[in-house]
Specification:
transcription, about 750 residues, Helix-turn-helix domain-containing protein, 6-stranded mixed sheet, DNA-binding, about 60% helix, 6-stranded antiparallel sheet
Length: about 750
Amino acid sequence: MKRIPMLLQLALILFCVMAIPLSILTWYSGAQILRNSELEIAESALAGLNANRKLNENALNNLAQDAVRLSSTHIYDRIRNFETYAELGENYGNMSSALTVLNELVNLNHRVDGVYSTYFYLEGANYVISTDKGITTLDRYESIDWIERALIGRVGIGGIWVPRELSSGTSVISYVLPLNRLSTTTRGMIVVNLRESQIESYLRSSEPGEHGFVLMRRDGTIISHDDKSLLLTNGRELPFVGEILDQGIKQGYAFHELDDKRLLYTWSFSERYRWWNVSILSMDELMTQTRAMQRSILLLTVVIFFVGTLLSVLLATWLSKPVRRLVHSVRARGNLGISGRNELAFLDAAFRRMQEEEEGLHLLLRQRERDTRSLAIHNLLKGEVSEQAESMFPEPYCLITIVSIDQYRNYVRQANSETRSYHRYLFNAQCEDLFPEDIHAYSVYQGEGYFAMVINYGEGEAGRNCEGIHGALAAVRTTAEDIFGHTVTIGVSSPAALNGNIPDRAAEAMEMIKYRMIEGGRGIIFWRGAADNGSRKYVYPSLSERRILNFLNTGDLDSIHKELSMIRQEILSAEYISYDNIMFIYNQLLSVTIKHLRENNISTERIFAGRGNVYSAIASLDTLDELEEYMRGFFGEIIQYLTRNQGEAGHGERIVRYLEQHYCEEIVFENMAKEIGISYSYMRRIVYELTGKSLIDYINQLRIEKAKQLLLETSLTIAQIASEVGYYNVQSFNRFFRKYEGMAPSSYRSAKTNTS
């Protein structure tokens, strides 16, 4: 822009003033038209989907009601006593009864369009009565083993719809209806196979832009789809369908992009059948007319832009004439070394250059002054008194203070290096201004969260017992907390002369920081005189150590907490105790505890995997409160680990005992888990870890072992033994016995009897 002539630049500005609002208005109106159209189309599509869903539900419900009415007519009682195909064919009367049932099934087929076949299976019989193959034996008809699995999810006395593929390759939705025990004593079930293509005819939308549809069970299994290769697969794997199901919203719509095509997904959940209905429409086809209207609006906008451009050029020429004359005059009177720029950029650069030169000189002076002052203070703390230091500190008395950030490691984690550097600059700049005018104070950063401050004062402040210094240090503490977002502890040395032993006074102030361990953070600690460490009694709570280990063995965490509180009180009540003494106490507690755990073959690596180095962790803590809190968490994790291991062993015994007592019954695993007091998933994991088998496999193994005993020791029939061990039909018993023993129960009994 700086090289563009001012005339053109001004014309461009005027054009933008006109063009930008017009562009925004055009864009906004077009976007609103598109959005409102999309929403109306989506609402209409959702209403159509709901209408198709209700049509499908009504058709299925009518078919189910016809089946229920047929089941309550007692027509099946005529063949109740004929369990074999041979018995059925013994005389004309038996066969006539079966044909009557067949005629009723055929009539049921004709009541609803799209029924592929219907058959009736008498429980325990070896034949079926079907509309597609007539009256035939089970071995000549399709397998009915799927019925038992399908009925597991049935609720109440009604039937259940099951999508499946027949042996002929035809996809159907089967309605399985066991006969109601309240209306008949006959045991059996009616199965109606409705063609999947009939479901498709109900669900396919008549809207233009049809792209696809899908009908799914609640678990995602596809019941109906326009792509027949996807039937009975997991519908969650289809694009965006899994996302729709996971939302848990029972009906709605959403827009998605797929292969550069914008699609409308509408969905509706059937409360009656617990099915998901999803329709997919192409928005590109549905929005054809709306987009044509949007293109017309854009064309009109372009015409307006063209006319506005001509007007902007004319107006810019008239407005820029005075400025061009001014720039020409300035260039003619002096050479500023600025070329290749337009009139506005020339004037801006000329004034900016003068301002930059002035600011540069000012910053250079301040930086040199700050560096010289910091170097003089660092040398003074080392014992080197320079002329700069003497000029900075003209009064006879000095105090050295150390300002330490509490919980420095937490502060480092919360602030990056640039932020910490800025905080140091603010603190050094602000704290020097907090002291009275007759007190000279300067601060420098020492590293690791420590600031050294030299305070120089005269006879007047000394006569007031340093009241001004005390008040200023309190203000320094408050200012530091505001800047760092953390409390600080301030250690203050004894007074000294400027030419005295300044390094020793700095060491005194640093020693006072260690008193933070006992007194807590956010304190101002003044020099208390040297302690005669040789005459002080060394503190170590040996009795508490032994009691803590005993409480650890019994899992008594409350008593451990009390012992930790007693240790803390003993430290606080000591007449004198050093920082090193305190750290030794807690390091020794850690070492003894870890040694005790390892001697008892307890894996400390698993307990403390997330804690890192525990010794380094306590070394970074500032106060007794933090040490006690850390030790509470330390012992809490140990107790939790030991309790969890004991709890798993106890739960395992209860689970195995329960299964061994109730394996012959129908066990609902969720209720079993609640009775034991654990979750179902946790119970499955415990059983697998104890037995190496799943819950189902373990129960079936118990049943088969009991069945083997009954086969050899009793004369019960196969059907009686199956019922005795918990199987409700012989087919299931035979299938599981073959799975675990490799032969039929009758073959097993014969083989073992012959061997004996």
